[in-house]
User: Fold this.
Amino acid sequence: MLELALKGDKKYWGWVIALLAVIGVAFAVYLKQLDFGLGITGMSRDVSWGFYIAQFTFLVGVAAGGVMVVLPRYLHDYKAFGRITILGEFLAIAAVVMCLLFIIADLGQPMRAFNVILYPTPGSVLFWDMIVLNGYLLLNIVIGWNVLEAERNNIHYAKWVKPLIITSIIWAPAIHTVTAFLYCGLPGRGFWMTAILAPRFLASAFAAGPALLILLCLIIRKVTKFDPGKEQIQSLAKIVTYAIIINVFFLLCEVFVVFYSRIPSHMSHMQYLFAGLHGHGALVPWMWTSMTLMATSIVLLVIPAARKNESILAFTCVILFIGTWIDKGMGMISGGFVPNPLHHVTEYMPTLPEILITLGVYATGLLILTILFKVAVGVKEEVGGLKDSCESC
Amino acid sequence: MGNSRRSFLKVAGITALGIGTNPVLDVFASSGGNGAEPKSEVSQNEESLTAKRWGMVIDTRKFHSAEDLDPIIEACHKIHNVPELTEPRHKIMWLWGDEYKHVFTHREHELINDRIKHLPFLVLCNHCEKPACVRACPTKATFKRDDGIVLMDFHRCIGCRFCMAACPYGSRSFNFRDPRPFIKEENKEFPTRMKGVVEKCNFCAERLAVGKMPACVEASNGAITVGDLDDSESEVRELLRTNYTIRRKPDLGAGPSVYYIV
Amino acid sequence: MYDKNKIVTGLVIFVAIVTFPFWYNLGKAIPAPEPKLSEKAKAAKECVVPKVDMKSEHMQILDLWRDTVVRDANRVYKTGKGKTFNMSLSTGEDSCTGCHDNKAEFCDKCHNYASVDPYCWDCHIAPKEKKPEENK
Assistant:
């Protein structure tokens, strides 16, 4: 089926070549990082995780968000989603690959990464993270490929795929819960040590993932002959609405707990993020932008007329994605490390090489997404995807 | 045509598996080895200092200013080839000094007495009984020895820095770049580290192994005492019995082994 | 054949890449080197294990040593013949580099020939060519 990705018009190839160019530049910068060390990033002794891990944390959510198409289709027989489950699964593949690339990019000794398998340590959450991420990647590759191949040949997919699909539905929240457990079990980091961290991760995942999927569906409808469907997009929009409301509600719960109790060591992290601490406040404008974007997106999603208007919906999804990205991708990491365990403030801002490598990983993910979506759309165009061609799925 | 390609792949796969098991069987077959020679054995040095549970007591009454801490810090850093990085973000510290309100964040208050307020306290890895860093490490590159010392295996560390996130005391440093250009005087008796690994105080395990006291103890002029917390007759236990001591963030349950006499 | 030009071009590039080690190193073949033993090593007559075993297994021995020292706190190695060594690559008189104190003549000779680049020396301080001024 991959040959479907080799046939495309000038715009398609132009896009692929642009992505390859970005990847090329980023790879060169990564070689510099391998040679010099992680010192070319903005990370420090106090803020020892930065942009790379932040992107990994955010993208695990996007990967898990793919389950929001699969779950209604297979657990609740919502046949309409049958048309786009493949898009959710392929988005998950691209997102998990980006997660793994970000982790590799962040390692100080990446050539020793195999040590995690050679010396398994079940007591370490990072060990389980490695297992669940790779497992989810494998699941989605196997499921996605088989279901798509079956659709192309106009038959039902093999029986053994169904239990894998059910597994992936359970596995998806698992990958993000394990990622949350990386943070919320650390005794010295008060900002992360909250039981609501895993639920909050899931809520923002189920908002950001489907929001991105809506945008991708709208793009696909515009540049290909396959139409994911108005009903499908609206259903996704309803899921996003509830998820983002729950996410912001959880955030407000955290704010209340911290500021009503007035415990200084708990307040200091939120203070740093939203008001600045000891004269350091680089993230303050970012955090308030994120809050504004998320609040605005809630308003635009709750109003039915705005949600049903696909142009407004597209705008809403964009600002929601950016808002949740800032909240999870930038705020969460810095907030945990600042102030440090000795209550000193060391700020963190990514450097140019760090941003270039990040863009390279995103470009890699986009490339994988482009290829996979091209294959999926190619199959659907072949089969005539106007109707839900797999009725007995 | 379709069937024969499939059967070809099946045969090729099984053949590859068969060829692949040969080296595995070889390893099992050869583990008998040269049985004629007497076996070699490993052991500890005769002079090595041992303990059931190493601990440290720092008598802060013997310090008066930051200058008192400098020679101790210098002794530790020099002997272990700890680099002196100019970029503050990349600083590597095994042992350093900080004020009471930063070291003891859980018990500081504005109206603390004058002596404590301006006194610098020595900060280092606490070699906890229940180290969060050991739990976090995915490769056991950081591990707790039976005698209580929390050590780094620099050969195994992948530089993921999960241990740095886990440590509630901020005791760990990462080599953001090659440390060698920043080591003023190399101590040839101890390796340096390379870029990309995490490091911290190692309780001078290499000195204990040859019967010497940790470098900070020797340089402290009696202010720092190291010994076996499980031996009720040890000097550290005597100090703990007769003086009021505090530890950093005790409520976190990590069980730090460094005690401060205030 | 279909797509003849693309296939032949691809094939040429593939063959060029796969045979790269051969034509890049043309004319650089040399006979296998003999590492030079220092005076101290010659005087000691035998290493941790016989020379033949050392040659094929020194990597495994060092691997075992580093785990035993770092993780188990055992630093003394007694061979079957009763000789003791300090299980260290670079620390002290009875470590590896205590006897084999010329890295270029001993270690590097074979490593360079075999194109092997062990990262030991990133951390372990290799013995300098001249005598060190002070010895702790």
